Amino acid sequence: MVNNQHAAPAPVGGSLVNAATLTCGVLIALMVAILAVRFLFGLGAVTALNDGYPWGIWIVVDVVIGTAFACGGFSVAMLVYIFNRGEYHPLVRPALLASLFGYTLAGAGVIFDLGRWWNVWNMYWPGSINPNSVMFEVAMCISLYIVVMWIEFSPVVLEQLGKDDARRKVGKAMFFIIALGTVLPMMHQSSLGTLLVVMGYQIHPLWQTPLQPALYLLTAITMGYAVVLFESCVASSAYRRKIEMHMLTPMAKVMLGFLAVYLLIRIGDLLVRGALSQAFVPSVEALTFWLEMACFIAPLILIGAESNRRNPAKLFLAGILLMLGGALLRLNGFLIGYETGDGFSYFPTLAEVLVTAGMFAIEVLGYIIITRRFPVLPREEATH
Amino acid sequence: MSTRRDFLKGALASGAAVTACVAAVPAAARETRPRPPEALGLLYDATLCVGCKACVAACKEANNNPPEFSTVDHLWDTPLDTSGYTFNIIKMYRNGTMEVKDQEKNGYAFMKTSCMHCGDPSCVSACPVSAMTKDPVTGVVGYNPDKCIGCRYCVAACPFGIPKYQYDSPTGRIGKCELCRHRTKDGHYSACAEVCPTGATLYGKTSDLLAEAKRRIALKPGTRTTYPRGKVGGPDQSYEAPVGNYLQHVYGEKEYGGTQVLKLSGVNFAKVGMPDLPPDAAAALSETIQHTLYANLIMPFAVLGAMTWVAKRNVKPDDESSDKEGS
Amino acid sequence: MGNISEIFETSRETLHDIERRLEMPRREFLQFCATLAATMGLPAGAEAAVAKAIEAAKRPSVIWLHFQECTGCTESLLRAEHPTLEKLILDVISLDYHETLMAAAGHQAEAARKDAMKANKGKYVLVVEGAIPLKDKGIYCKVGGHTAIDLVKECAADAAAVIAIGSCAAWGGMPSTGPNPSGSVGVAEALGKPVVTIPGCPPNPYNFLAAVVHFLTFGKLPEVDKLGRPKFAYGRLIHENCERRAHFDAGRFAMEFGDAGHRQGYCLYKLGCKGPETYANCPTLGFGDAGENNWPVGCGHPCIGCSEKGVGFEKPIHQVAKVLNAVPPQQYPRIVEEQGKAASIASAAAVAAVAGAAAGAAIMLTRNLGLSHAAEEAERAKGTGDAGKSSADKAQV
After folding, report:
1. For B52, which of C248, C331, C397 is closest by C-beta distance?
2. I need a surface site. Which of A319, B38, B243, C360 has the fewest CB within 10 A?
């Protein structure tokens, strides 16, 4: 089979009611109930947020880590449309779908973490905005990016609905939309890291650096590919389809390239700032630092060799490790390495955990529904 | 059929665009801003403070804040720290036998905790909707709940941990000292300085307060001197008292470029909760990075231009159709 | 220490004698003993010992000298009400010389003094009221032709104990206020040796009475601090027992006489109250036998530190006091307080469960992928796969 002859996308079909979707449904219901309490009684009623830890897992996991996990669309779009690697084309729609959900939900997640959410229009009002604020730029880019992604994904919907005219019109402008869809994530993913800079000494030296934008952007790109690896394997396994190894294997090499650049900058930065010594002081931070580094370095060993990259198990594991490493970089920077002064501690409440779980459940449920009912994944005869 | 050439073209184009932008925009370093010349502030002298908490009570009243309880019987306001409802608090440093006031070992001391009204505030730089603002003349850092979205970036950004959010309310707002700017029209000044019986908290122009602070630390401990109370330049309420054992450091003179609230202490500042800060403000670094990358949106548009050009070449209009292959 | 049953061991006749001699019912007498015992902070049951001591037949002789004073201390003593004090004082002790209270005057009075001193040599108690001027050989206070300094030295020589009552006798008091033109000093300084002092202007009479009764009961004076003040009365700052202390701790102060805070009984620290640097028990006892709250602060005027040398009659009344020995209440916020909620079991369990489930699923999927890959490789090795050609080993650049 020649590389470029790809099966066209088609709905996977099948029943929408199964163990996975039902579990998701329960988690979502719980989440809605908890959010009702949050809006009626305030953040303190459901979260463990306190004066020392203003940001908890809703921001750090749902938004910061969540959007990084949602970088699959961005990474694959860059590969296909900027670096012109058409052979990865079938990866675009599923990656885009996951990104779409990830970002839309991150945006929703921000709203219910905002303490004065009814004033959120100020974020877009010229009389109120503060362009010097990193958060302002992040919010603008993410807002615009969500719109861009829905437009990018619209052909899928229009195709299913049979609206070919509309689809062609959108198609004509698609190149610009795609270009936007590569620039915007570069801006906000790097700036999610820059958010930490103004916090100064409150961020542990192992994670506080003026190079935040570079570190966060590189890990976001890397995580994007890692997520594609992850989702491909899970989707193929769940839908009993063949894994597209012919695409994943070379893509993994690209991923390793970005990972290598990232590690160079990360370790170089630690050495230049003289912060690496902190990693040898026995502490919780040192422990989580080494965990994070291990997650980043292990894939180089695991799938460094070409033959290993042909093993889906190893690809999958490498993908997970990179997702974990990127997640740890963010968790360490924003929560574990964040110190506002002694005496404060934070651990999410059950309610917070359930809401986060609910958010991911929406993503999973949405992914399942849309792949089964809309043309996202390549058509394939069920092999067994 | 993708070729090495196409790939290299794409890579080079984007790389060139990015490099051009970085070169074109000079590293727009944003210098740390100093205090404005007419800046208003406070001088807190820990050696004069007797821990009476009149300032805590006065601040609560001036800002209409409810009491906070930390004892079993909720008899009176006993906050343990500043919060969304407590904008000023006196904390006590304890060591060993606590015999001598303002002594670091086997001593005790008091320290006021309230907004430092920085010259280059992290909270003002962080706030995406300009709810935190710095008055250009008085330099007072004010808060506007009508703009605030409650994102709590200011809470995370402040090096002193001052802005705090009211988590117990569905309509919570941020709370912090605003130097009683809402009382100046009635001829009042900061409530804490108004009620302080020993003049430990003194209100006035920071330039005057800095001069007074330097005068005090130059005196010999144990000798007698006159201490003003209330407001510099206000009605004379001064009194004589012995000079305390000051550390030779006016906290807030240079930290993060300088703050409008200055502090004097006998105990090491780090031990009484005042962090050791460099003279360059974190806000300056954060904004330098942002300006370097995004000033006037030059770089983003340049990159967008490059990406658009490349994508136009690579994306065929009916690329998304089910029947066509990718290029 | 005796216990209450010992009182009832005392024979009926003896108690009857006491009642007759002191002209007071037994119950009132016992109440008096209990009051004194409580004032001294003695443990329960001590009133029995006190009663026994008082009922002893021999009354000690007391010589009471007056120098630079206003007689306020004597007046304060006369206001003691439990019971009518003149009876007890005249019957419990033998007041052999007291210029205000004795009937004699002139040479007879002085003769009475000398006789009493001779008769009770080494056994009488000397009480001094008023400061003693030292300047110009002490001529600024003379009684019966003798200077105060000479008199006090003469009387103190054979005394069993010397008690200086009132701030004037304790450390110089009002007469010693700057510039102290007569060089007035307290008794201890005049004699050049420590004495028991009961400072105050005037002191609470029960402080004096209790010290005397302690002496009678136990044969020695109560424990004193380094200024000679009985610790049971002067061991704590007024600030520590003040009924307005809660207002100080909460930061509620009267700023002016008559303002809203003043009328609500707020702390008077800002009006110059010297309670934080004055050792006395005024807030606990009150004056005029009217109970607590009957003292300057209770009536709305800041304490002037009248019993404390260096504070009373020296520091301006409305000048802020130095807060000595400030041990704020335990809940005074520390520089670092533990805040924030610890992980709840439920939450920790949930996080662990999620992490565990994710890890488990990942491990399972990895295994399955590995197994199917191994199976594929095996098939290819057997040469049956045209699926092999679709491998990515022709990865392009």
Report:
1. C248
2. C360
Q: Hey, is the C-beta of A124 within 8 angstroms of any chain B C-beta?
A: no
Does B325 sit within 8 Å of A176, measured CB to CB? no
Whole-angstrom Cα distance, residue A93 to residue C285?
88
Contacts 24+ apart (CB under 8 A), C10-15: C10/C51, C10/C52, C10/C55, C14/C55, C15/C55
Query: Which pTM value belongs to this model?
Result: 0.81
pLDDT beyond 50 at A3? no
A52/C contact by beta carbon, under 8 A? yes
A chain contacts of residue C348, beta-carbon cutoff 8 Å: 347
C-beta of residue A220 within 8 angstroms of C-beta of residue A106: no
Q: pLDDT value at position A244?
A: 83
* Residue B178 in this model has a pLDDT that exceeds 60: yes
Among residues of chain C, what percentage have pLDDT more than 70? Answer: 84
Whether residue C303 is contained in a domain is answered as: yes
Contacts of C220 by beta carbon, 8 Å cutoff, 6+ apart: C214
- Compare all CA atoms of chain C with the CA of B239 and give the residue at the minimum distance: C319
Interatomic CA distance for residues C199 and C211, integer angstroms: 13
Fold of B40-283: Alpha-Beta Plaits (3.30.70)
Reading the block at residue A82, the tokens are 């900027």
Separation between Cα atoms, residue C125 and residue C215, nearest integer Å: 10
Considering the domain architecture, whether residues C123 and C192 belong to the same structural domain is answered as yes
Residue C24 is assigned to a structural domain of this protein: no
**Final residue in a domain of this structure, among C268, C303, C329:** C329
Nearest to A48 among C341, C368, C393 (CB): C341
Q: How many CB atoms lie within 10 A of CB B65?
A: 18
Q: Do C392 and A344 touch (CB under 8 A)?
A: no
What is the domain extent for residue C320? 236-329
One domain for residues C188 and C263: no
Give the other-Cβ count within 10 Å of C58's Cβ.
8
C274 plus C190 within the same structural domain:
no
C285 within a domain of the structure (yes/no): yes
The pLDDT tens digits of the residues spanning B116-163 come to: 999 999 999 999 999 999 999 999 999 999 999 999 999 999 999 999
Q: Domain boundary at C202, C225, C246, which? A: C202
Q: Look up the CATH number of the domain holding residue C82.
A: 3.40.50.700
CATH code of residue C276: 4.10.480.10
With a threshold of 0.95, tell me whether the complex ipTM lies above it. Answer: no
Q: Which two tokens stand for residue A244?
A: 């597209």
Q: How far is CA C255 from CA A366, B191, C264, C272, C370, in A?
A: 67, 13, 12, 10, 82
**Counted domains in chain C:** 2
Residue A123 DSSP one-character state: G
Q: How far apart are CA C344 and CA A119, in angstroms?
A: 33
CA nearest to A42 within chain B: B170
Query: In this predicted model, what pLDDT tens digit does every residue of C277-288 receive, in sequence order?
Result: 999 999 998 888
From chain B, pick out residues whose CB is under 8 angstroms from the CB of C327.
Answer: 98
Mutation for B interface: A1, A82, A187, A261, most B CBs within 10 A: A82
A82 CB-contact burial (10 Å; exposed 0-12 / middle 13-18 / buried 19+): buried
Whether residue B55 and residue C337 make contact (CB cut-off 8 A), yes or no, is: no
C159 and C93 housed in the same domain = yes
Pick among A97, A130, A244 to test the B interface (most B CBs inside 10 A): A130
Element (H, E) at B231: strand B230-231
Q: How far apart are CA C138 and CA C142, in angstroms?
A: 8
Which domains does chain A possess? 13-47+351-371 (no CATH), 48-341 (1.20.1630.10)
Q: Does C198 share its domain with C88?
A: yes
Tell me, yes or no, whether C187 and C82 share the same domain: yes
Residue C383 lies in a domain: no
